[in-house]
Write a sequence for this structure.
């Protein structure tokens, strides 16, 4: 599983750390505090969430697509494993890499930026939910994808913009009406906001609300990917 | 009471999403312990039939039983080993890992699967490729690995979809002798092939499939007698390929 660790673990960790250094440490001096936090501290939780979300998504979408495309998925489908077990296996596989990235990133980012970890259990819950949700999304896209391009398309056109507009780099409450309200329609805003509350103890909306919304999204996506395995829809002609 | 057939298929129909009718109300019984050949032209429905039995294709209707167990269920899947027509190997896994993971899928513990993987590596002469990934294997080695994987979990019914396509003479004989030994030990074999002499040499019963239906079924000798033919090839041409050949002749003359 960790054979490709340079691509799947090291690359996203370095990318996120670069964001922290470039935006945080250089830009941070010219940007005033946000909600009482230095800028370089403020962006840390969102960047960790973003790196983990993308890792879970891209690992699973490429794993499933590859297995379908090269047809070695057949070796799994013909084996005596119920659909939920296969599904769970893929979810855990993606989550392991994503969580490893989260741990490594947190271990580097907190000392470098001085960001706190105020509610560790809450932060863990937030990242577990987001990892599961994005892992399931990866499975769904991997199942529906017709080509390799489909997956990066979804990543570049849907996930990345929504994360960026979800308040990784700014507090959406500073946007003012109507952009603040529009931002609240973005599901990824709640992912970022819940993670931020776990780390910094401060957020735009009540963490109970954001965690609940993230949980509902997670349940929805997991049910969808489970449905794909249960019915064999698109996995078996 | 007779022991249940290895494979009992009744009224199996498969219509693909694009409307192709690949299996048309097909009935087939493969007796326990037999060496069974499934012959038919390209597109006859052989791979589709195998897919339906192995939970790889969703049947449109019909019933499948594997040693009496409902097709696609856990017991049925556990009892079948399949080597597909197209080599389908995970390109990131070595020979050993491919076998080890397969054992895991079939509920073996790590140690048991590891031991069994080493056994299969020796049996299929892959020892010096043990730690090599699939893309770096030759075509024949991939075939051997595919067969090793199909047999790893000691299935009662082994399904081989054209295992000897594109394989050199030496390996073909090697594969045959391995499959023969397996059959002598009591494993039921279902084999598809386009080499009629291979089917005649190996199989104790043969079914001819065409247009998604079984059109004839007997021993090789029985088929020759009932169709007044001297070779299996003549039977084959008479039963399943006649129309195509007439068309080809027409096209050549046009
Ligand atoms: N996934 C699919 N979607 C639509 N049609 C399919 C699909 N797979 C197979 N078919 C069609 O079903 C029919 C039977 O194909 P199948 O692969 O079962 O034949 P076969 O007997 O295995 O042929 P061959 O000897 O060439 O391997 C063909 O008309 C084929 O084009
Ligand atoms: Mg075929």
């Amino acid at each position: 599983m960790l054979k490709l660790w340079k691509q799947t673990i090291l690359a996203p960790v370095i990318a996120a750390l670069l964001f922290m250094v470039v935006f945080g440490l250089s830009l941070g001096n010219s940007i005033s505090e946000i909600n009482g936090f230095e800028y370089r501290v403020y962006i840390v939780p969102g960047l960790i969430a973003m790196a983990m979300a993308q890792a879970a998504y891209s690992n699973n979408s490429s794993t499933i697509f590859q297995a379908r495309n090269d047809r070695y998925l057949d070796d799994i489908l013909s084996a005596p494993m119920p659909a939920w077990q296969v599904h769970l296996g893929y979810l855990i596989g993606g989550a392991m890499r994503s969580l490893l990235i989260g741990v490594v990133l947190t271990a580097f980012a907190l000392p470098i930026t001085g960001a706190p970890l105020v509610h560790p259990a809450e932060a863990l819950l937030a990242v577990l939910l987001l990892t599961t949700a994005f892992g399931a999304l990866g499975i769904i896209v991997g199942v529906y994808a017709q080509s390799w391009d489909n997956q990066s398309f979804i990543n570049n056109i849907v996930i990345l913009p929504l994360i960026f507009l979800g308040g990784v780099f700014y507090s959406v409450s500073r946007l003012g009406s109507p952009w603040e309200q529009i931002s609240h329609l973005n599901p990824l805003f709640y992912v970022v906001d819940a993670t931020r509350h776990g780390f910094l103890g401060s957020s735009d909306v009540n963490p109970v609300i954001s965690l609940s919304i993230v949980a509902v999204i997670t349940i929805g996506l997991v049910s969808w990917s489970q449905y794909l395995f249960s019915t064999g829809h698109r996995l078996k002609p | 009471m007779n022991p249940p057939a290895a494979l009992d298929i009744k009224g199996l129909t498969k219509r693909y999403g694009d409307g192709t009718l690949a299996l048309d109300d097909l009935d087939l019984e493969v007796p326990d312990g037999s060496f069974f050949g499934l012959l038919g032209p390209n597109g006859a429905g052989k791979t589709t039939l195998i897919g339906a039995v192995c939970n790889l294709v969703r049947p449109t209707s019909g019933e499948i039983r594997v040693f009496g167990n409902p097709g696609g269920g856990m017991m049925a899947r556990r009892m079948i080993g399949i080597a597909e027509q197209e080599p389908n190997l995970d390109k990131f896994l070595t020979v050993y890992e491919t076998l080890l993971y397969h054992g895991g899928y079939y509920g073996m513990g790590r140690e048991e699967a590891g031991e069994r993987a080493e056994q299969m590596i020796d049996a299929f002469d892959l020892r010096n490729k043990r730690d090599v990934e699939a893309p770096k294997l030759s075509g024949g080695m991939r075939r051997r690995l595919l067969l090793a994987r199909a047999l790893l979990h000691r299935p009662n019914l082994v399904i081989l979809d054209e295992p000897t396509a594109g394989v050199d003479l030496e390996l073909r004989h090697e594969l045959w002798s391995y499959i023969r030994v397996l059959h002598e030990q009591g494993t039921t074999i279902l084999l598809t092939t386009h080499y009629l002499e291979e089917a005649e040499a190996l199989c104790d019963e043969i079914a001819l499939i065409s247009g998604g239906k079984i059109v004839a079924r007997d021993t090789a000798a029985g088929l020759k007698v009932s169709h007044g033919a001297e070779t299996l090839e003549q039977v084959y041409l008479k039963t399943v390929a006649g129309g195509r050949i007439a068309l080809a002749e027409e096209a050549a003359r046009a």
In short: The longest helix of chain B spans residues 232-253. The mean pLDDT of chain B is 88.
